[in-house]
Amino acid sequence: MYFSPLSVIFTSSFVVSTLAATYQLSDNHVGTDFLSTFVHEAIPDPTHGRVNYVDQATALAQNLTFASGNTLIMRADSKTTLSASGPGRNSVRIHSNKKYTTHVSVFDIRHMPQGCGTWPAAWEVGDDWPNQGEVDIA
After folding, report:
1. Cα–Cα distance between 81 and 134 in angstroms, integer?
2. What are the TM regions of this chain, as residue ranges (predicted)?
3. Rg (alpha carbons) of the chain, rounded to whole number
4. Taking residues 78-96, what's their average pLDDT?
5. What string of H, E and C letters represents the secondary structure of the chain?
6. How far apart are CA 38 and CA 104, in angstroms?
């Protein structure tokens, strides 16, 4: 998945009217800001998919994550020939350092791959996943 430019805007509900909530901008993450405000998770896939999530240093070294100016690129390794019994492709999974409860997220995504089992993906989860559910953004 190429996020170019990728910016994520988080807003929190501050004023509530009788018809709808009013939101104000609380955080705006663009390009290189992702490298300090999000964590690369080098964890086994919690859904048991055939993917190998790598840490930030590995993602940067293998050009799976690239940030510059207003651009963030996240992608899965497309060059390695995998064995049938191997762990799957190296890819990127990030989460924000900050926790949000009531919020609106706006993603400005120039290109996102589609299809079943496509990584990386964008989603939001609660601290107690899967019990608190998730929002898949695709």
Report:
1. 32
2. none
3. 16
4. 89
5. CECCCCEEEEEEEEEECCCCEEEEEEEEEEHHHHHHHEEECCCCCCCCCCEEECCHHHHHHCCCEEEECCEEEECCCCCCCCCCCCCCEEECCEEECCCCCCEEEEECCCECCCCCCCCCCEEEECCCCCCCCEEEEC
6. 17
Angstrom distance (rounded) from CA 2 to CA 65: 9
Residues in the chain: 138
Q: What is the pLDDT of residues 70-85, one digit of tens each?
A: 888 888 898 999 999 8
pTM for the full predicted model: 0.74
Q: How far apart are CA 132 and CA 128, in angstroms?
A: 6
Q: Which two tokens stand for residue 41?
A: 């998770």
Q: Which two tokens stand for residue 76?
A: 């899965």
Scan for tokens 């799957």, then name that residue. 88
Domains of the chain, CATH where assigned = 7-118 (2.60.120.200)
